């Protein structure tokens, strides 16, 4: 049986907290103040007990995913030097899906240029980068953008293995 969890009232919860509910192997999260229902495909005795966590955001950083790059260092702004390294890679796909992704259409120069930009996801990367510059408004936007072009690393930084 599908179920919904609704936060009916709250007392003493931080204003910007997140409610996280886990039933079995399914976890749903929402801002406590959103009033959004958390839906679960089923709730049986095997999903008991239901775990409810109240989470508080510590820091936020944006990662602009760059085509062809799989590892990034993400630096979080704030008083303390916080960072992490993450790996972003394609999920395993079936042979039919892989063949469909690898197909490249031919065409005129304009179409070839468009295909090149789309094939390397340059427009998506630049658009996402500009969106984060607008949101973050860094003091030096060029250094900020360069860091994203370098996948979060400084020149000469070593990567975790």
Automatic annotation (TrEMBL):
Domain of life: Eukaryota
Name of the protein in question: RIIa domain-containing protein
Organism, as annotated: Alexandrium andersonii
